[in-house]
């Protein structure tokens, strides 16, 4: 697909699935393996609003990162 802009840090993410809950675009799905980062099912649906990051209890430790495409950086907010 050539579309990789959402990254989880497996060592930090505890699989709480808060990001799965808050994503209005259903980009993620819970990982069947307990305590593991969510699966990224539909990355092309991401609107880069950053809701998943702002709701993540481990955002400061970098549990989830989204690399915003250059042409969308003006609208990205955390
Ligand atoms: S930035 Fe928004 S649309 Fe993209 S994965 Fe996070 S919550 Fe979903
Ligand atoms: S990235 Fe954050 S909100 Fe999402 S499952 Fe991991 S710890 Fe929870």
Essential attributes:
78 residues; alpha+beta; two-stranded antiparallel ribbon; Alpha-Beta Plaits; 2 helices; binds iron/sulfur cluster
Give an overview in words.
By secondary structure, this protein is α+β, with helices and mostly antiparallel strands. It has a single domain (6-71), classed as Alpha-Beta Plaits, CATH 3.30.70. Helix content is 13%, strand content 13%. It contains 2 helices and 4 strands. It has helices spanning 18-22, 51-55; strands spanning 6-8, 28-29, 39-40, 64-66. The chain has a two-stranded antiparallel sheet with strand order 1-4. The chain is globular and about 35 Å long. The N and C termini lie far apart (26 Å). The model has no long low-confidence stretch (mean pLDDT 90). The structure holds iron/sulfur cluster (SF4) (2 copies).
Put the structure in a nutshell.
The protein has 78 residues and is of the alpha+beta class. Helix content is 13%, strand content 13%.
What is the arithmetic mean of pLDDT?
90
Main sheet: strand order: 1-4
Give the second-level CATH assignment, the architecture. Answer: 2-Layer Sandwich
Please provide the count of β strands: 4
Using the coordinates above, name the CATH class. Answer: Alpha Beta
Proportion in helices: 10-25%
User: What's the N-to-C terminus distance?
Assistant: 26 Å
Q: How would you spell out the order of helices and strands?
A: EHEEHE
- Name the ligand types: iron/sulfur cluster
């Amino acid at each position: 697909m050539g579309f990789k802009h959402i990254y989880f840090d497996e060592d930090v993410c505890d699989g709480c699935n808060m990001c799965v809950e808050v994503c209005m675009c259903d980009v993620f799905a819970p990982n069947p393996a307990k305590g593991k980062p969510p699966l990224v099912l539909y990355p092309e649906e991401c609107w880069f609003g950053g809701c998943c990051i702002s709701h993540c209890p481990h955002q400061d430790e970098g549990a989830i990162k989204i690399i915003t495409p250059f042409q969308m950086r003006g609208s990205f907010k955390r």
